[in-house]
Amino acid sequence: MATLADYGPEVRAEVKQVREVVARLHEQLIKWNLVVWTAGNVSQRLHTADLMVIKPSGVRYEYLTPGSMVVCDLDGNVVDGTEAPSSDTASHAYIYRNMPNVYGVVHTHSTYATAWAATGQNIPCGLTMMGDEFGGPVPVGPFRLIGSEAIGKGVVETLKKYPKSPAVLMQNHGPFTIGKDAEAAVKAAAMTEEVAHTMWAARQLGDIIEIPQADIDKLNDRYQNVYGQH
Question: Other C-beta atoms within 10 Å of 140: how many?
Answer without folding.
Answer: 21
